[in-house]
Amino acid sequence: MPGRVIVDKERLMKRTSQAGFSLIEVIITFSILAVATTALGLVELSNARRTQYLKQKDIAFARGQAVLERVLRIPFGTPGATAPTPAQLDLLFGSDDDARAVTLTMLQQHDVNDDGTVDQQPWSFKLQGVEEKGVWTVHVDSDLDGNGKIEPTITQDGLSIETREGRADILRVEVRRDGKTVLKTLRARTPQEQDDTSAPLGGGEG
């Protein structure tokens, strides 16, 4: 019949089906790209935060090391020294001025209860200008191995071995953050300090 169009239903359905699958594939492709882009962005953000954290940690470590070096430069002092005043602690931990009015023995924590353990609390300080969080402390005592007990001698293989712990001429100096060791060393009284029995600059030692 003139003007009549014969439609091949099978071919039309196949063509329509092919077109539909192509659209779905495009949608899936864009979805995968969106997810990948989001994941990449999160990775970059995480890396940036990690880099900032490590930077702050390095700065904090350097500041903590500076505090340790500063403590090691002060005079050793004599046994039985009185505790430092808040003003002296501020001078020691928060200033670049001469802190020789404080001695190491003034910072020393002692075995108050005479039970072989260090009973006194360590000295806390803050790192100025550092975003690094946490509680920083300086430990000064005669517990040279840091195990919490002052043991002048230990027994090993049936032999009594002197540890030098509890002596008045050597102390352990340790910097901790949130109770974890950051830096530590030993500081002995030098021969010059042994010969010098005068009070430190600025007094403050009894």
Describe this structure in words.
This protein has 206 residues and is an alpha+beta fold. The chain has one domain. It contains 4 helices and 6 strands, in the order αααββββββα. The chain has a 4-stranded antiparallel β-sheet with strand order 1-2-5-6. It starts with 8 loop residues before the first helix and ends in an 11-residue tail after the last helix. The relative contact order is 0.13.
Distance between the termini: 125 Å
Determine the mean pLDDT.
78
Major β-sheet annotation: 4 strands, antiparallel
If you compute it from the alpha carbons, what radius of gyration comes out, rounded to the nearest whole angstrom? 34 Å
Shape: elongated
* Total beta-strand segments: 6
Q: Please provide the ordered H/E string of secondary-structure elements.
A: HHHEEEEEEH
Strand content: 15-25%
